[in-house]
Amino acid sequence: MKEIRPKRLKIAIFTDTYMPEVNGVAHSIDRFSKLTADDGHKVMIFCPKHGRYRDKSYPRITVKRYSSITAPTYRDIKIALPFVLSVRNDLKKFKPDLVHIQTPMGIGWMGIWATKLLKLKNVQTYHTYIPDFLVYLKPKTFLGLHLFVNYLNSSKIIKAFLETDVSDEDKSSNKLKTSLSEKLDEVVRKAQADKTSRMTERFARDLTRAVYNRADLVLTPSRILKRILKKNGVKSEVEVLSNGIEFKLFEKKSNYSIQNKLIHVGRLGHEKHLEVVIRALKIALETNDRITLDVIGEGPAKKPMQHLVKQLKLSNHVRFLGFKRKEDLVKLFCQYDAFVTASTIETQGIVILEAMAAGLPIIGVKKLAVPEIVKDKKNGYLSKPFNEEEMAKNILLLLSDERRLERFGKKSLSIAKSHEIVKCKEKLENYYYRVASLK
Length: 439
Description:
Blueprint: E1 10-14, H1 24-38, E2 42-48, E3 61-66, E4 68-71, E5 74-80, H2 84-94, E6 98-101, H3 106-118, E7 122-125, H4 130-133, H5 155-163, H6 169-193, H7 196-212, E8 217-220, H8 223-231, E9 238-240, E10 261-265, H9 274-284, E11 292-296, H10 302-311, E12 318-322, H11 326-332, E13 338-340, H12 350-357, E14 362-365, H13 370-373, E15 380-383, H14 388-398, H15 402-417, H16 421-436
Helix pairs in contact: 1-16, 2-3, 5-6, 5-7, 9-14, 12-15
């Protein structure tokens, strides 16, 4: 009997981060989109422009880019400023079966409003732990909308923005302006009397509810994020779905003889706390003076970290190798003994999983999603966040026994294999069909 396949879907994806940006979310969206298109689905990606970057043609994928500005506190972040009716018109022409909103920033907001205008079903992915992300995008610059760029610190404004009746475009515009002006004075007075940290925390919590309670389904890459969403009052259904890695691409480590070589890969943002790794290395060198650390990546924390290395007289032990392409990384990981990170904001840890896919043990911290993929004393060691002494102890312990190093490395391979992106893509398609069939 001939197999009856479900109809091919038309999927619109809204994201504030996409190629050529170098981060786990952008790469995951790119890979999932291509795998989905390879299955015959049509995909349209709504994202920011990046200078003169031009997208390469790919069958059944259309990329729609909008003018953007650079985030003042992080040059790698682009904030797109599309007009909602323009987005709505582009979306209406595409006629999607559902919309997948990947980020809660400018384009993400426009996606939410456009789906409301067109009465479309939407899936949303909670990739980023919002309170930590606001280090770079304070509430007043979060949306980049000129009407209230200086006042977006209040859940009342978020509520007014999202709950406006948009069935009549002219009415909705006037109603939104009236609603905002009525609340603005009160909001500003309260914001001025509040502490910045409390304001940011409240904004993050209110933003999380306002955005993700408008989803027909929320996807998140780790169990801890699902718990955080529920704790913050998200009532929508939440499912855990890994961002996936291309497990087979990575050259596997075969020789576990100790070389005393550590590697750190990733965006060099201040939230990654590379200074903890560097200080831990300084301590470990008092016992084992052969250990070296290679740092791969670029970002705003690079110069301060280079200064710290010089200050601690570690220039002979730490190298900053800059950005490396994925094609290089797949062959590079296996040349090291272990991957080390002190990041406290990993919502899944794609680069950690990629190091594991090469067979590397991991030195990390007990924070957010890291303990879900790094099992303490099984495929690595975890220390308390910011505890340099404990991390140094773990580095020395890991580099003291070749058999343990190999046992941990094999366990890393086993865990990483379960995150193979093709398997994750199949789960994602099932979620798409489920949401598209909702009445």
